[in-house]
Specification:
Layout: H1 2-20, H2 24-37, H3 42-53, H4 57-70, H5 75-87, H6 91-101, H7 107-119, H8 128-140, H9 144-151
Helix pairs in contact: 1-2, 2-3, 3-4, 3-5, 4-5, 5-6, 6-7, 7-8, 8-9
Length: about 150
């Protein structure tokens, strides 16, 4: 209904303001409230991002799975789920998701998958040729980590 839509929009705007002010801990409860007002995955994805950036991987995984329950093919939620899975040591599952998302050409997905190839983790054999190819895709997309990695020659 209209009241819920307005309340959701206002709550998301407040949470986004906190993010712009680099106050993720103040944004988290607002995103949680927004997720309860309207059944959309955007606030949950934002929560997964915050938890992931704070290295709170178990919480990031839980929230990304909740976002996927709302929108099962949501690529942003899948990316944060892969990141969280890697953070909790479930690398093979992370790689499977990243490989599924790789065709989208996302710089962060290409970089993460390149790291797995570079380390030979997640069921992948170490393959620096493939890692550099993926770092190149990420660098062309503006990923600073990939640009630095290629500039360093590894």
């Amino acid at each position: 209904d209209r009241v819920a839509s307005v309340t959701y929009a206002a709550t998301m705007a407040l949470a986004d303001d906190h993010m712009r002010l680099k106050q993720p801990d103040q944004a988290l409860p607002l995103y949680l409230a927004a997720s309860k007002i309207c059944r959309l995955n955007f606030p949950l994805i934002n929560m997964a991002r915050i938890y992931g950036e704070q290295k709170r991987f178990a919480e990031a995984l839980e929230v990304s799975e909740a976002a996927l329950a709302v929108a099962p093919e949501g690529s942003q939620a899948l990316r944060w789920k892969a990141y969280a899975l890697g953070g909790v040591g479930r690398h093979a599952e992370a790689v499977a998701i990243l490989q599924r998302l790789a065709s989208e050409g996302s710089p962060d997905v290409a970089y993460a998958l390149g790291e797995y190839y570079a380390r030979g983790e997640g069921g992948l054999q170490r393959n620096m040729t493939e890692a550099r190819r993926l770092f190149g895709i990420a660098a062309r997309g503006g990923d600073e980590r990939a640009i630095k990695r290629l500039a360093a020659g590894n």
